[in-house]
Amino acid sequence: MSIRAIVSALARWIALPIVYLLCFVLSSGVA
Amino acid sequence: MAVLNSLVLGFLIARSRAWGWRLVGAVLVMFIGVYTVLTHIESIAFLTESALLPSEMLPPLVLSGVLLAVLFVPAAVWLLGKWRAPAAAPAGDDRLQMPPGEWVWKLALIAVAYVVLYFTFGYYVAWRVPAVQAYYGGTDPGSFAGQMANVFRDTAWLPFFQLLRGVLWTLVALPVIRWMKGRPWETAMAVGLSYAVLMNAVHLFPNPFMPRAVSMAHLIETASSNFLFGLVVVAVLLWRPRRS
């Protein structure tokens, strides 16, 4: 696995909770 | 909560043999099933009946839970690169392929196991905490048998309601179990963690409807029993009895 692939995978997993938080705020606001 | 829930859901997505809309559907069923349906039918049974949770609060909670799932799951599938079919399609297997009779006895066994875990952990982990008794307006009869006698006297519907919940817990995990990669123990961990985390991460933070001590007692009670139950569900469903 190349360094680039590792960094890309890491970035995706780090982004996951941020995306979750955005969806949570959005869904709470709408409901 | 965002970190725990998103990592558990990410694990389900990353380790699935499915992709695209099928994967979205499988994870949505688990997420909406545990986070919204199974959580709030319990709220309806306990909190609204005793006026601990205003009934008008429920529709917005349900709606926000469903919306969260509908927004997050497709985004997570895309983010983890599972929107398109992989170059080499993973090998299929015959998980959950069994005759109707086997489904019936396995679901019945799982439902009974859920009721046993629910009342055992409910009594020994949660009910013995004085703050929990005070919150629900009950007392500790001093023994598990005494507690069960009280349950059958005051809320005879509860064991049957929990039998149905046991079946529902199982149904919402079926798509994930069917398409999970790896060995059965990995699937068992995934289902156990999903049951434990998706329902309970909310208890990590103070909420206006429950004192902190009650919330923490429920966190320990349900996170541990749900995790164990997840292991039981996968062990029973993936166990293959010898056929003559």
Short description:
By secondary structure, chain A is mainly α. Helices cover 90% and strands 0% of the residues of chain A.
Question: What is the share of helical residues of chain A?
Answer: over 70%
Based on helices, strands and strand pairing, what is the structural class of chain B? mainly alpha
User: What is the H/E string of chain B?
Assistant: HHHHHHHHH
Percentage of residues in strands of chain A:
under 5%
Question: Mean pLDDT of chain A, as a whole number?
Answer: 90
Please state the CA-atom Rg of chain A, rounded to the nearest Å.
14 Å
Helix content of chain B: over 70%
* H/I helix tally of chain B: 9
Q: Specify Rg of chain B, calculated over alpha carbons.
A: 19 Å
Q: What would you call the structural class of chain A?
A: mainly alpha
The total count of strands of chain B amounts to 0
- Beta-strand portion of chain B reads under 5%
Query: Mean pLDDT score of chain B, rounded?
Result: 90
How do the helices and strands line up, and which of them pair or pack?
The complex is a heterodimer of chains A (31) and B (244).
Chain A: H1 3-30
Chain B: H1 2-14, H2 20-48, H3 58-79, H4 100-127, H5 130-136, H6 144-154, H7 157-179, H8 184-200, H9 212-238
Helix pairs in contact in B: 1-8, 2-3, 2-7, 2-8, 4-7, 4-9, 7-8, 8-9
Explain how this protein is built.
The complex is a heterodimer of chains A (about 30) and B (about 240). Chain A is an all-alpha fold. Helix content of chain A is about 90%, strand content about 0%. Chain A has one helix at about 5-30. The longest helix of chain A is centred in the middle third of the chain and has 28 residues, at about 5-30. Chain B is mainly α and about 240 residues long. The chains are: A mainly alpha (about 30), B mainly alpha (about 240).
Key traits:
heterodimer; A: 31 residues; mainly alpha; 1 helix; B: 244 residues; 73% helix; globular
